[in-house]
Amino acid sequence: MSPAALSLFTLAAALGAASAQAVTGTFPPVPLASKHFTYPNLPFQVDTDQGLIRGTQTGYNICNSTTENQDSLCQTSFFNDATDFCLWAPSKPGETVADVEGEMVAWCSKPGHGTRLIPEGALTGLQFLKTPDYIQVVGFIDQTKINMASGDFGGEMDPHGADLRGNPMGGVMFSTSFGNGIQQVIEWTNFMGSNSFCLKACDPAGANAANFCQHIYDRIGCAYNAPNAAQNNVFEACQADNADFPGVYTGADGAVTTYKQPAESLGPITSIPFTAKVPKSSNCTPLTSSAVFTGLPTAAAAAVTGSGSASGSGSSSGSATVTGSATAKPTGTSGSGSSTGGAKPAQSSQPSDATTLAVSTIAGLFGVMFSVVFLA
To answer: Which tens digit of pLDDT belongs to each residue from 159-207?
Structure first.
């Protein structure tokens, strides 16, 4: 082999080794969805992996009365019932989901979880469904009051993500809804955008939790991932049958088919060959927002200044004292171990009826369609 050829061979080998190292540095040794915890025995940060492509977890998971403020960086979420749930949203005002999905923080509808609180009046309608295998809340929100940019088409958060670290990284969820006290929910999804949201948490003991809370349909939104009959200005809690698994449908010929979401590189999704069936609901109880969403701050009090600092140390005992801010980087970690946003929706007015939920034919900034746009 000539010196020139040997030099090229050596360079190619070095580049190949570097490429392999880069790929190895993408994924954590233990995926987020495989990290199991009992509450409140959480490490200060769930994601402790270093040297991976997306950097380090930005928030913390030991959350208590010392972290419950509108600058909190808590990334431990709860979903208990129609009046007690947390949504993932940015820590700083005016951000888009596509830019910060890995750094989202918990915003909760009730005090007591050590998180930020959804401001009073931000929630304008919702439907809660409790089914045999999952709980789900779909609703309407002024997303600017939880730091999302006005007009952001949004995207999806789940405990997987392309690199298995979750969106947000280190984000975990707990629930009291499945009959065994406070349990970690392993499979969940949360779509945020277009002044609307859907949150779905699957029974950790259910045989089909991963199927009911699929995370691979991040481009077709709430209509297909969380079929519902939510209406703006209406608050209700219902029992319901299970919906079909997201992406699975029965055609006119009776054949059961699984829809394959096309790759984003193929451009916008302009049509889908089926309409997801809204499951039958019963025993619906109307709720009064002023009666159930109490103890929430006003929008002015909820404004994030982005100033200040956070400090904290912790262990799995959950006894650490932590204060947070939008610019804080916590210290003292311990313990083990996508979706994209798009352009403005077709219309900026608040939607009014989830029964008209449909996929928009407007191409997103990244060729992404987010079907939680409610067409009037």
So the answer is: 999 999 999 999 999 999 999 899 999 999 999 999 999 999 999 999 9
Integer Cα distance of 257 and 242 in angstroms = 18
36 touches 182 (CB < 8 A): no
Q: Say if 363 falls within a structural domain.
A: no
Write down the pTM of the prediction: 0.77
Range of the domain at 177: 31-356
The predicted pLDDT at position 300 comes to 61
Stretch among 52-61, 290-299, 352-361 having the lowest mean pLDDT: 352-361
CB-CB neighbours of 246 under 10 Å = 24
Are β-strands 123-130 and 235-240 bridged in parallel, bridged antiparallel, or unpaired?
parallel
Q: Report the alpha-carbon distance of residue 29 to residue 15 in Å, rounded.
A: 24
* The 3-state secondary structure of 241-266, one letter per residue: CCCCCCCEEECCCCCEEECCCCCHHH
Do the beta carbons of residue 95 and residue 304 sit within 8 Å?
no
Number of domains in the chain: 1
Q: Is residue 373 part of a domain?
A: no
* Cα–Cα separations (whole angstroms), residue 373 to 67, 128, 234, 249, 366: 33, 19, 18, 22, 16
Comparison of pLDDT for 75 and 345, the residue scoring more: 75
What's the pLDDT at 82? 97
Q: CB–CB of 125/234 below 8 Å?
A: yes
> Is 371 among the domain residues?
no
Nearest to 276 by CA among 81, 84, 138: 138
- Residue type, position 103, single letter: E
State how far the Cα of 87 lies from the Cα of 123, in Å rounded to an integer. 11
pLDDT band for 343, please (50, 70, 90 cuts): very low
- At 275, the pLDDT band (50, 70, 90 cuts) reads very high
376 token code pair: 């009037």
The Cα–Cα gap between 296 and 137 comes to 19
108, containing H or E segment: strand 105-108
Q: Is it the case that residue 130 has pLDDT exceeding 60?
A: yes
